[in-house]
């Protein structure tokens, strides 16, 4: 399992329209490299799960769509013939089987003898460090344990492609972060091709070699986590990767003019422009030292930092983060400094 | 004592008194009467050694087992079909299949007469096809048809609910691991609805064991337990035997229901 | 998903066959009730005579059945609804036992139940001869359905927290029962009531043993007519029964679908 075992996936013109006429996915083209971890990111209903189910073979694409693994057309193959591993949001562990029987099930339907498949399943459990759970019943497992068993079951058949459908969503925050780094390490070690569906941008940024941001059944942007984070293709992607502040204004003579003041920018004149930036991208200073000045409306102390709500004067609200020791109080004016590489002018 | 607890006890009292007076006490009386005949308590042994009663008991058990198996088989196929497919007319079909849910046994018996009696639909159909006159309403086969008619709607309601509650991801997971259609059915779907199969099967079995109305309508000559009890009690005034047979019948049905509830886990034994 | 064509066809066939098995005899019965001579077929003409004859012959059984059903409903409401609350609010061994014992009459065949009632109380002539005897049997048989239906709803809405909330606002136990428990149990009570009335109107196993010539219910009359009347009268009588019970069954179906908790 050390050499890259994953298959490259090629998706061409794959859309999905349901019999009732709902279009879940407009035709998309996408290449997944062998051994790569590709994250499909977007809100619910954006088509990411539909795309995953098309790759899995749980849905067939509309006429004209084509899916190939390592160049071989698998469009007509049902999931049971595709040799994929899949981890479901609900885990879908079989309650009528013990942990080890769940993990060995894929080998059982492949006709592997009892002893051999149990030994193989046990080694996967050991790799996931849950060998102690082998004989447990599913309803005796915690959420995190179930998650590991589901992953072990999907990996036991040595799939060419691993598909994960919101595998961490059902867990609490602390466990989610822990398992996220575990999955990350595992995917890198196995060099398996993985497609990972999530609505959580932190998960996407941490796990993905590349991220596909989806919107309304179409692809909004494909890029590395850094590309998506620092150069979002549009407003929507920007919002989805955490750029929550926007100021409306105009660009004139190299200056962005807005209700809160002005900012020097290197951009041609524009009658309508938007300045997008993250809460953590700003520095709050004395009003005298800044060209953008806001009214502080609310200060929330969060321990390591403060979260400050600011008003631009025309009612626009923005959120800024400030060091914990900066003296701030509601009702006072505050200056805001934005460095050139920390905002987007759209 | 807490005042709410006092109120709760007050609320339980009428129920308790009613059940004690009209269920527990008569049951004790029934047991007593069974032992008051010429044979005394040996009446219980007598019914187990009398070849006629034993034959009746065996016939009733076999009939009930056959009804249960047939109902579950049909019910599983139909429930899987209706739960997995959406098509025009489906709600109507579901209504048709579950509407006879509370048709009493007598009416079900009449349905069987209309289907397979002397003037029944099958009789005219088979005559029309020149295959002789099919009449089986007044036999074990008629009783079998009647009990399937009686139990099918209940079994369907339970099984359909169970199939719909089954996480579709379970079957998808099995397929992702390479399982074919038959393997998914055997390893995931059927085990998934096993509690419902167990519960509704037990109810079908218990109903078939004790049902009286259908047999009464179809003929008094079919030797099933309920008819024998009725004949002993009303025609032969053989109270002790009737009581002993009733208790035997009650024990069997109760045991089957209790067993299925234990096997299937609590919460699914929705008696109907 | 793609379902295998053959599997689909087979399943569809079985489903349609099952539906026909259940519906065709019922349809035949309805038709026969309106047909002048069923043996000769519909060509003999349609008529309402049979229905009129049935109403003339058996109207007392219809009224008695309605009366007993309503009486059974009243009794189960009084006996089971408060008790359901008492059993849900504090699950204990005693509560388990009470629930088990109350549920037993469903497991015991109606015939045995009726026999036991006759042996215990048959000697009390006034009771034995009155409709109250049948009523007692029906209450015994339908109690578990009301009890379970109400208990299921109360458990689903987590009535204990609601009650603790009301108690924290100063409501007395009795006020809590009327202001919080009853309104929240409404769905279960309604489903249970439909079930009780439906079962009572159709009950035969117990009633056949418990009835007297002067206390004949509709199903008892039906059995009479099946044995001794011509097919058209039996069918017309069955038709009258359908008219009474089918709306109840439809309501039960509809209700079960909307609440999802009824069964």
UniProtKB/TrEMBL annotation, chain C:
Which keywords describe this protein according to UniProt? Cell inner membrane, Cell membrane, Membrane, Transmembrane, Transmembrane helix, Transport
Please report a single Pfam family linked to this protein.
BPD_transp_1
Gene Ontology BP terms: transmembrane transport
**Which part of the chain is the ABC transmembrane type-1 domain?**
62-252
In the bilayer, the protein is annotated as: Multi-pass membrane protein
Entry's Gene Ontology cellular component terms: plasma membrane
Q: Which Gene3D superfamilies match?
A: MetI-like
PROSITE patterns assigned: ABC_TM1
- Sequence intervals crossing the membrane: 62-88, 100-121, 133-157, 177-201, 234-255
Q: What is its main location?
A: membrane
The protein's location, in the record's own words, is:
Cell inner membrane; Cell membrane
| Family designation | Belongs to the binding-protein-dependent transport system permease family.
Recorded protein name is ABC transporter permease
Q: From which source organism is this entry?
A: Xanthobacter flavus
């Amino acid at each position: 399992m050390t050499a890259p075992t994953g298959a490259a996936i090629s998706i061409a013109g794959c859309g999905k329209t349901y019999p009732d006429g709902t279009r879940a996915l407009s035709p998309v083209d996408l290449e997944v490299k062998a051994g790569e971890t590709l994250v499909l990111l977007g809100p619910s209903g954006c088509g990411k799960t539909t795309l995953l189910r098309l790759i899995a073979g749980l849905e067939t694409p509309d006429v004209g769509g084509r899916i190939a693994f390592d160049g071989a057309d698998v469009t007509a193959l049902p999931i049971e013939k595709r040799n994929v591993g899949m981890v479901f949001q609900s885990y879908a562990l079989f309650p009528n089987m013990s942990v080890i029987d769940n993990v060995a099930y894929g080998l059982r339907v492949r006709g592997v003898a009892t002893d051999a498949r149990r030994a193989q399943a046990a080694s996967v459990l050991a790799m996931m460090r849950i060998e102690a759970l082998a004989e447990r019943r599913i309803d005796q497992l915690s959420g995190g344990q179930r998650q590991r068993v589901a992953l072990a079951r999907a990996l036991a058949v040595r799939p060419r492609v691993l598909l994960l459908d919101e595998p961490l969503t059902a867990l609490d925050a602390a466990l989610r972060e822990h398992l996220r780094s575990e999955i990350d390490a595992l995917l890198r070690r196995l060099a398996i091709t993985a497609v990972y569906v999530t609505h959580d941008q932190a998960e996407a940024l941490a796990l993905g070699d590349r991220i596909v941001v989806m919107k309304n059944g179409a692809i909004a942007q494909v890029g590395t986590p850094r590309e998506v984070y620092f150069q979002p293709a549009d407003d929507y992607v920007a919002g989805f990767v955490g750029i929550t502040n926007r100021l409306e204004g105009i660009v004139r003579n190299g200056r962005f003019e807005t209700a809160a003041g002005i900012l020097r920018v290197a951009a041609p004149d524009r009658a309508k422009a938007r300045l997008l930036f993250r809460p953590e991208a700003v520095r709050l200073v004395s009003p005298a030292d800044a060209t953008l000045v806001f009214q502080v409306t609310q200060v929330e102390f969060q321990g390591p930092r403060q979260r400050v709500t600011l008003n631009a004067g025309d009612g626009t609200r923005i959120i800024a983060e400030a060091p914990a020791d900066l003296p701030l109080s509601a009702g006072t004016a505050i200056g805001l400094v934005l460095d050139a590489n920390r905002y987007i002018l759209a | 004592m807490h005042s709410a607890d006092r109120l709760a006890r007050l609320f339980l009292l009428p129920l308790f008194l009613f059940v004690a007076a009209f269920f527990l006490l008569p049951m004790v009386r029934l047991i007593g009467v069974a032992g008051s005949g010429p044979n005394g308590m040996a009446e219980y042994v007598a019914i187990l050694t009398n070849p006629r009663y034993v034959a009746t008991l065996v016939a009733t058990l076999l009939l009930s087992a056959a009804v249960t198996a047939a109902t579950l088989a049909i019910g599983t196929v139909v429930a899987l079909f209706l739960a997995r497919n959406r098509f025009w007319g489906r709600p109507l079909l579901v209504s048709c299949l579950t509407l006879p849910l509370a048709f009493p046994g007598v009416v079900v018996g009449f349905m069987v007469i209309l289907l397979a009696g002397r003037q029944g639909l099958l009789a005219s159909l088979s005559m029309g096809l020149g295959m002789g006159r099919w009449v089986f309403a007044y036999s074990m086969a008629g009783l079998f048809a009647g009990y399937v008619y009686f139990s099918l709607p209940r079994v369907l309601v339970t099984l359909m609910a169970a199939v719909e509650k089954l996480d579709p991801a379970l079957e998808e997971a099995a397929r992702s691991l390479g399982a074919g259609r038959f393997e998914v059915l055997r390893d995931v779907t059927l085990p998934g609805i096993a509690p419902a199969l167990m519960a509704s099967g037990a109810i079908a079995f218990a109903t078939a064991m004790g049902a009286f109305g259908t047999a009464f309508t179809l003929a008094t000559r079919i030797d099933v337990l309920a008819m024998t009890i009725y004949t002993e009690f009303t025609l032969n005034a053989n109270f002790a035997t009737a009581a002993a047979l009733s208790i035997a019948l009650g024990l069997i049905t109760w045991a089957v229901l209790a067993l299925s509830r234990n096997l299937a886990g609590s919460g699914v034994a929705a008696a109907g | 998903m793609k379902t295998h064509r053959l599997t689909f066809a087979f399943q569809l066939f079985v489903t349609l066959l099952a539906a026909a098995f259940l519906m065709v005899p019922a349809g035949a019965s309805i038709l026969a009730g309106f047909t002048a001579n069923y043996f000769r077929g519909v060509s003999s003409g349609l008529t309402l005579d049979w229905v009129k004859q049935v109403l003339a012959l058996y109207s007392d059984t219809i009224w008695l059945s309605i009366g007993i059903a309503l009486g059974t409903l009243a009794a189960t409401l009084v006996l089971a609804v408060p008790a359901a609350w008492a059993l849900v609010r504090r699950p204990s061994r005693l509560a388990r036992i009470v629930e088990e014992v109350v549920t037993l009459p469903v497991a015991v065949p109606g015939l045995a139940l009726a026999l036991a009632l006759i042996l215990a109380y048959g000697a009390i002539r006034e009771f034995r001869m009155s409709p109250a005897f049948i009523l007692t049997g029906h209450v015994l048989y339908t109690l578990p359905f009301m009890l379970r239906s109400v208990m299921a709803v109360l458990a689903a809405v987590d009535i204990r927290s609601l009650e603790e909330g009301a108690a924290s606002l100063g409501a007395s136990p009795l006020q809590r029962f009327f202001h919080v428990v009853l309104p929240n149990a409404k769905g279960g009570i309604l489903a249970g009531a439909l079930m009780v009335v439906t079962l009572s109107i159709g009950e035969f196993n117990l009633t056949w043993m418990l009835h007297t010539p002067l206390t004949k219910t509709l199903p008892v009359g039906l059995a009479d007519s099946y044995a001794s009347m011509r097919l058209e009268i039996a069918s017309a009588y069955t038709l009258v029964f359908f008219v009474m019970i089918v709306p109840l069954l439809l309501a039960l179906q509809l209700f079960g679908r909307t609440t999802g908790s009824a069964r």
